[in-house]
Amino acid sequence: MDLTRIPPQAAGQQEGDAHGSLGLQDVVIVVQSQRNSFHARRGAQRKAEILQEAAQLGKGLPVVVLLHELSEYEGDWSILPALPRLSASHGRSASWFFFIEEETSVLLRNLLQVLNRYQVQEEWFLGKRLHDDEASIIHHYAFSEDPGSFGYPDPAAGWALSAPLLLRLTERLHHENLKSDFTIDLKHEVALFIWEEGNGPKLTAVSEFCTEPNDNCATWFTTYLPHCGDPVSKNNLFVAVKTCQRFHSERVTVVKETWEKDAALLEYYSDVADASVPAIDLGVPNTERGHCGKTFAILRRFLSEAVPKADWLLIVDDDTLISLPRLRRLLRCYDPKEAVSLGDRYGYGLIQSGYSYTTGGAGMVLSRAAVSRLLSSSCSCYSDDAPDDMVLGRCFTSLRIPVTHSPLFHQARPGDYPASLLSLRHAISFHKHWNIDPVAVYRRWLQERPPHHEL
After folding, report:
1. Residue 132 vs residues 79, 143, 144: alpha-carbon distances, Å
2. Are the beta carbons of 379 and 396 closer than 8 angstroms?
3. What's the pLDDT score for residue 420?
4. 60: left (phi over 0), alpha (psi -120 to 50) or beta
5. Nearest alpha-carbon partner for 159 in 111, 226, 230, 122
6. What is the 3-state secondary structure (H, E, C) of 218-244?
7. Cα separations (Å) of 44 from 30, 38, 40?
């Protein structure tokens, strides 16, 4: 029987009805917090709220772990490297490990009711089920014949591992090599590792793990675009668009038709000067692969007297679609005096002490402080055609500057993500023009609508 297809109530009957013996002291709640000061504060607030609610409920106190404090290793965000640490600290004392986002609210009474439906001696992987609507590049086109057949959890709703499963996963990590060095979409890759090509459990769907609140929810989600005050000024965001002569008439035209109007400070950087764009030649030849030489030239120009001084730098490709108004709202949450690297975070070699980086296509956002620290270091391109986003990530890791993730940035197109996931987000970016109408995508997903009273 496929437990992902039956309601939680029926699943509970399948396993043997609830015994109600589980207490919060048997649960480890892992807040997937980040090292950046804004996110660290939000994680600490969530932890305090959980412990306060637990004290009032009187069903024991859970262990609440802030993921960024679990160890000094930056790669713990990708979860699999964190499992042995969680196992060593709590694997023999806890029955459940429950993972939530910083903005996920938890009703502990309902969470206990859910977890008590499942036999803790067995292996369980619980969550709100997502699936691909079509074969997706970010999932390496896995399950392309039937994309909906594989479920993975929505991290905003929270997801749970029973202790026996976590302990077995830890043993596997000690003895197995991962199939890929890259971490691209952590929720899908964790689910694939747990599934183990059919030898491990599939995700069991739990209706009480919610993103939109209702009376039965054990969790619900606020937003990935919190309100932190008035947006950052247009004059405090400098936008650098990487292009080349071949795409001046094709891709740059799309930028001008969509989001360029929302930028006060914007320059196009190409392999030739072109007054019609206008495009600036930075003296770095165009390359077919990475663009490290061009990106470092942009960084140096950003700090020079050649351009107006701004707190924030956004580097995008010419086929990136972006909402600058939403980005400026998000940036209000961050301190530009702090070294900030923000975007769609990927990882390389994270099981073996690798590094994280923000993907170039989704847009790389850097504070002036981060650019200054980078350029004053010895870190540089090993060649002009090295992958700029990965080199920056490696540099920031060596400088102990955290790479901060926002799921509002997207390295791929809207169709590469579950529609149910995108509907809850105020997307900031998408990337690539493959088999889409980029202007239509911008208007549907990214263009800001005026308030009703202005229509």
Report:
1. 21, 9, 9
2. no
3. 84
4. left
5. 111
6. CEEECCCCCCCCCCCCHHHEEEEEECC
7. 12, 10, 6
Q: CA 31 to CA 419: how far, in whole Å?
A: 25
Question: What are the two backbone dihedrals, phi and then psi, of residue 454, each rounded to the nearest 5 degrees?
Answer: -100, -5
Question: What would the two tokens of residue 379 be?
Answer: 């870190």
Rounded Cα–Cα distance for residues 54 and 62 (Å):
7
Return the structure tokens found at 66.
Answer: 């802030």
Does the N-terminal peptide bond of residue 278 adopt cis geometry, omega within 30 degrees of 0? yes
Distance CA 343, CA 159 (A): 23
Q: What is the pLDDT of residue 453?
A: 41
Q: Would you call 178 exposed, middle or buried from its count of C-beta atoms within 10 A (0-12, 13-18, 19+)?
A: middle
Q: How far apart are CA 373 and CA 350, in angstroms?
A: 24
Q: Which of 40, 106, 109 is nearest to 77 (CA)?
A: 40
Structural contact between residues 430 and 446, judged by C-beta atoms closer than 8 angstroms: yes
Looking at residue 5, what is its pLDDT? Answer: 33
Each residue of 137-150: pLDDT tens digit?
999 999 999 999 99
- Position 126, amino acid: L
User: What does the pLDDT look like over 314-325, one tens digit per residue?
Assistant: 999 999 999 999
Sheet holding 265-270, edge to edge: 279-281, 265-270, 237-242, 312-317, 364-367, 341-343, 403-405
278 burial level (CB within 10 Å; 0-12, 13-18, 19+): exposed
Is the pLDDT confidence value at 220 over 80?
A: yes
pLDDT bucket at 352, cuts 50 / 70 / 90: confident
Q: Where are the beta strands (DSSP E) in 371-439?
A: 403-405, 429-431
Q: Over the stretch 261-277, which tens digit does the pLDDT of each residue have?
A: 999 999 999 999 999 99
Measured between alpha carbons, how far is 231 from 229 in angstroms, rounded to an integer? 6
Count the Cβ atoms, other than its own, within 10 Å of residue 121.
9
- Locate 181 and state its tokens: 């060095």
Distance CA 195, CA 385 (A): 38
Percentage of the chain modeled with pLDDT above 90: 88
Pair 237, 328: CB distance under 8 Å: yes
Mean pLDDT of 179-193: 94
Q: Are the C-beta atoms of 357 and 392 separated by less than 8 Å?
A: yes
Phi, psi of 260 (to 5 degrees): -60, -35
For 379-436, what is each residue's pLDDT tens digit?
Answer: 999 999 999 999 999 999 999 999 999 999 999 999 999 988 887 678 999 999 999 9
Identify the three-state secondary structure at position 209.
strand
